Amino acid sequence: MVIIERKFVLKDRLKNAVYPERCPYCTRVVHLGELFCDKCAKEFTDITYHTYARGGHLTVSAVPYTDIFAQGIKRFKFDRGQQYSYQLARIMAEAIAKEYKNECFDYITYVPLHPKKFEERGYNQSELLAKDLSRILGIPTEKALKKTRNNQPQHSIKKASEREKNVKGVYKLSDKSIAENKRILLIDDIITTGNTLGECAKVLYEGKAQCVLCATFAIAVTKTT
Ligand SMILES: [Zn+2]
User: Fold this and answer.
1) How much distance in Å is there from the Cα of 38 to the middle of ligand 1?
2) Among 176, 172, 164, which residue's Cα sits nearest to residue 147?
3) Could you say which DSSP state residue 82 is in?
4) Ligand 1 centroid vs 41 CA: distance in angstroms?
5) Could you identify which of 64, 97, 135, 220 might form a hypothetical disulfide with 225, taking C-beta atoms 3.0 to 4.6 angstroms apart as the criterion?
6) What is d(CA 153, CA 159) in angstroms, rounded to the nearest whole number?
7) Is 219 helix (H, G, I), strand (E, B) or coil?
């Protein structure tokens, strides 16, 4: 898997002069194309994190959901921070290229939002990450899944059994043959208990996917985060 570097045209430079790029983790202004500021750079390591989503689906994550990374995700997800997507996706791409280097994915897909939630937030953070990863890794994206029930947010439920129940049956294939014989990279912003990714992977396998591997930007270090 090869990482395709971002190229800037005049339009990007002009835009940057008016709206400079910022560090997603502390909002300091950074040079165009920089993924984080010098101060936050210290928080990054070469470590990649592994876990298994419910049902045993391998998941690779780039960073722990601690301190500055939690701030970055909150800014990206809840604070109209769409502009940070590329900077987070580029970090994810390193972890994916390293851990899944021998994989040949047919497409990248993502955990969908319910249309009502999408309307409230204005975007789906996992879709933005998947689309940037598509550009960075040169793999197409597909909207393979849809969310048919506007359930409670997983992070608002503390009990493990309740979280598992909360996501059961809420995802469906967008088209019945979309996963058939496909090798799929499934994206979400964060993995906590792994119920959401597990449920999405299950639906893709029910649609006869050949292989589903998962990747997230962050991994929660405690089960209740
Ligand atoms: Zn910073």
Assistant:
1) 7
2) 172
3) G
4) 7
5) 220
6) 13
7) strand
Q: If you measure from the C-alpha of residue 37 to the centroid of ligand 1, how many angstroms do you get, rounded to a whole number?
A: 4
Digit-coded pLDDT (tens) for 154-201 = 888 888 888 888 899 999 999 999 999 999 999 999 999 999 999 999
The answer to whether 59 touches 104, Cβ cutoff 8 Å, is: no
* Residue of 175, 32, 14 whose CA lies nearest to 107: 175
State the residue for tokens 């002009």: 14
What is the Å distance from ligand 1's center to 125 Cα? 20
Residues of the chain short of pLDDT 50, as ranges, are 223-225
Q: Where are the beta strands (DSSP E) in 80-156?
A: 107-110, 145-147
CA 76 to centroid of ligand 1, rounded, Å? 14
Query: Which one-letter DSSP state was computed for residue 113?
Result: P
Domains of the chain: 8-42 (no CATH), 45-151+162-219 (3.40.50.2020)
